[in-house]
Amino acid sequence: MTKEQNVQNHTRWYPLFHFVITPLLVINLVWALVCLVMEFEWFRVQYLLLSLGVILLSFAARLQALKAQDRVIRLEERLRYRELLTPDLAKRAAGLRTGQMIALRFASDEELAGLVERTLNGDFATTKEIKLAIKTWRADHLRV
User: Fold this and answer.
1) Rounded CA separation 113/93 (Å)
2) Residue 74: inside a domain
3) Full-prediction pTM beyond 0.85?
C-alpha cells in the first residue's frame, strides 16, 4: 500500500536516475578530471569530454521525459477543469502557466475552483504557495 502523499513528501525520486546513474556519471567525470590533471595526455582530454557529454545526455533525457510528463499533466488538468469548473472559469484557467497547473493538480476536486480563482487573481507568487494552500491533497503516484 502506498503511503499517503502530501506537500511534505510529494517530491518524486527516481532511484535509478537519482541514486545510481547520476552518482556513477559524476564519479566517472571526477575520475577523468583527476587522471587528466595527474598526467596530461590528449586521450584523457577526449575521455573527459566524453564523460561530460554522457552527463549532459543523461540530463537531456531526463528533462525531455519531464517535459513530456508536464504536457500530459497540462492536458489532464484542462480536461479536469472542463468537468469541474464553470465554463467561464475553465476558459480562464486555460491561461494558467504550466507550473501553476502542475501545482494545482494536487488539489482535491472540492477545492479546485477556489484555488484556480485565487491563482488567476495572483494570490500566489510561487507554485510552492499553491501547494501549501491545498487542504485536501490529491496524490499523484504515477510521476517519473
Assistant:
1) 10
2) yes
3) no
